[in-house]
Specification:
The longest helix is centred in the N-terminal third of the chain and has 16 residues. Helix 3 packs across helix 5. This protein is 34% helix and 27% strand. It has a 6-stranded mixed beta sheet with strand order 1-2-3-4-6-5, sandwiched between helices. The chain has one domain: Gcn5-related N-acetyltransferase (GNAT) (Aminopeptidase, 3-Layer(aba) Sandwich), CATH 3.40.630.30. The two termini are 31 Å apart.
Length: 161
Amino acid sequence: MRRDFDCGVPEISDYLRDRGNNAAWRNAAKPWVAVDADVGVIGYYVLVASRIERKKAPADLAAIEPLHAIPSTYLAAFAIDRRFQGRGYGSDLLLHAFITAANAARYVNSYAMDLHAFDDRARAFHVRHGFRPLGDPRRPNDLYILLQDIRRTLEGYGDLV
């Protein structure tokens, strides 16, 4: 199932095919995988505890933690197989990542979810879902969303968190 996965970005497809199990086994990452029993892997994501350097953070984020780095949840990988792109699966999987991050933040401090979008299409997808640029003009694909905004999004879905 995994070996057929192709999201269109070789590094991200290869991670699931070649390194995902090894990373999970070493407890280095926990891939969340959406699978259809008939067609295989639809998509996956990986969240890791991280931090955003205060001096690189936009004002709304820097204000949260005036002296230190801001604890965050890094969306290290996010991909939908090409066969399922453009059909709503990405939004559903991102919603699951939001739920997972919000629940984890109850136990491990996190003020934001951040990511690096691999291309303009991924950047546009995440911006449509509330992510904003971290602010470095040399790295326009580094994005974030505040956890309070994620929680606000999840309020419309009932008691998920």
